[in-house]
Amino acid sequence: MYPPARKDFVSLTVSERDPRSYNNGKQWRRQSCWRKWKQLSRLQRCLILFLLALLLFCGIVAYPSLVGHWRGLSDRAVNDWVKGPDHDRKPIVPAVIPEPQKQNGPVLPPPPPQKKAFPKRGPPALQNRLQKKGNVSDSQVEESQVAVKSGEAGEGEKPLVSWRGAMIEADQAPELHPSVQEKEPEGEKGDVEPADTRDSTPLQPDLDSVKRLEAVKEAFRHAWKGYKEFAWGHDELKPVSKSYSEWFGLGLTLIDSLDTMWIMDLKEEFEEARAWVATQLTFNKNVDVNLFESTIRILGGLLSTYHLTGDALFLDKAKDIGSRLMPAFNTPSKIPYSDVNIGKGTAHPPRWTSDSTVAEVTSIQLEFRELSRLTQEPRYRDAADTVIKLVHTLEGKQDGLVPMFINTNSGQFTHLGVYTLGARADSYYEYLLKQWIQGGKKEKELLEDYLQAMEGVKKNLLRKSSPSGLTFVGELSHGHFSPKMDHLVCFLPGTLALGAHNGLPSEHMELAKQLMETCYQMYTQMETGLSPEIVHFNMQGGEARDVEVKLADRHNLLRPETVESLFYLYRFTGDRKYRDWGWEIFQNFNKYTRVPSGGYTSISNVRDPDYPSPRDKMESFFLGETLKYLFLLFWDDPKLLSLDEFIFNTEAHPLPIWLPAQ
Ligand code: DMJ
């Protein structure tokens, strides 16, 4: 038997000959209108004509602003009408991004009046809390405070003093921080681990760096102004709508920014934020948080701020959040769930799967290990180490490259055959190396896995682009190579350079330099000079440029990876081109993402310098990472957060490298 025929249409027959049928012919319409018009009185006709003229006039006047408004409406990311904090509906401010400026025109707002002397407070007390054998950083910072660069001053000029990188006149040397001025007890100094001098060699002083440092600080203040005014205590600023968004409801931007403020010596801002942490921040909330994000941003941010300041408030808060995150590890395999309810003490995977992301479960170790060291409670480190040890043994890798997902029940990789250094795998590689360094380069399996993975990258993922021959890192999917590279991969030059600095093969440094150039090109080959989220490299001849960008990939979220790597490359090579590249990128952030009323915004289109389409969101990592790395890039004295004493977590929060016997 056949099923009845489906009828999913309606048929309508219109006969022109039927006098009752609807006649919408032009001729008929014209006659009928004219008849109606004639039936009107003279006064009525005059009135209608007057109204039409008035409408025409208003239309001409309003046309330009309507066009601007419609452009705004077409941007999917900027909500044209937004709910303000008071739940009123408010229109967006049309001129949120500075007018595009001419290439040679000024790109920065007028800099604040140059302070003659650099920050009054002086360098932060950089301390390795609970390092049993004395405080490396303090002693080294102390020794390096005032170095007269006599060779730099011309005849008749006052000698210049290098002060955290700022070149200032000798008689304007700022005060030292009391904790830096204090002498360390004799006898403790001898126990300091000898530092690798390469990172302690003063880099050539750079007269531009004073101006650049001030500009980065000014950018931070501007971002903070927006956050303070419109999003205080909330997770993220929405600078365009002068509002905020919540992710975990834990003041994410504020916590992520703490150590940046300390490093930049923004004392007033830091104290206000500290007061909020002391009086308002509570983790006793019925809220689901992502284990990885809250570990790297909140736990990492609190731990590093504790190390920089020595203020026990931050350690207490770190312990609190750390212990509340522990239920995530209660899974059959000990591979943690992605989400934890920090109020209820329950954890679960995402709704649609029992998988976790590989990068997420393998990039929480630096923080949990450090928490154990500080609290002397092994449970944090044990949980995190178990994960990395299990991953070490797993099948499903290709030449050390890991898949992107791992199952919390079986403890096995899933979605096998896809390999990337980008989203969902990136910081796995970064944390292998960094844990090895954090622990004093003793944990051989970490090093083995890192070295094998870098060989895997070289063998499977490296290619050259056309026409410039840029080295890039693509992706592999079931044996098929794709020339796709996420901006996230730009952490790799910095990580490779850090490895080479720590004694790994010098060819890692060569590769780091090549990839650094590629990441820089991902910015310069765009019309705004800002990188998109994802690029595809050309590999065949005949194309004008190396980089193609798909429509959906044209956004820039103010990410840090490229400036992060520039910081490492500059520290290890002293080559000023890396600073200049960072400066260019910084200027383009100012030009295309700065919101006049305060804050910076992600944008949707790096290919359109006339209208980059603000997305109305300032990610917390812009303050936690991007501006911090830019500041450190322009800071001349490599002893500020020496890379021989500190390891930066994947959210740019510096944690101490452990001394031997710990
Ligand atoms: C940050 O949260 C971290 O750097 C993370 O490793 C990757 N994503 C963002 C920045 O892009």
What does this structure look like?
The strands form nine sheets. The chain has a three-stranded antiparallel sheet. Strands 8-9-10 form a three-stranded antiparallel sheet. It has 19 helices and 23 strands. The radius of gyration is 29 Å and the shape is globular. Helix 9 packs across helix 11 (365-375) and helix 15 packs parallel to helix 17 (561-573). Residues 1-29, 64-128 and 132-198 have low confidence and may be disordered. The protein is α+β, with helices and mostly antiparallel strands. Strand 17 (475-477) and strand 18 (480-482) form a beta hairpin. It binds 1-deoxymannojirimycin. Residues 427, 488, 559-560, 621, 625, 650-651 line the site of 1-deoxymannojirimycin.
Identify the notable features of this structure and list them briefly.
662 residues, alpha+beta, 3-stranded antiparallel sheet, 19 helices, globular, disordered N terminus, binds 1-deoxymannojirimycin
Q: Return Rg in Å.
A: 29 Å
Helical fraction:
40-55%
**How much of the sequence is in beta strands?**
5-15%
The neighbouring-strand order within the major sheet is: 3-4-5
- The low-confidence runs, each spanning 5 or more residues with pLDDT under 50, are 1-29, 64-128, 132-198
**Number of helical runs?**
19
The major sheet is characterized as:
3 strands, antiparallel
Q: What's the β-strand tally? A: 23
Average pLDDT taken over every residue = 79
Bound molecules: 1-deoxymannojirimycin
Q: What is the approximate shape? A: globular
Query: Kindly, what is the distance between the CA atoms of the first and last residues, rounded to a whole number of angstroms?
Result: 80 Å
* Classification by helices and strands: alpha+beta
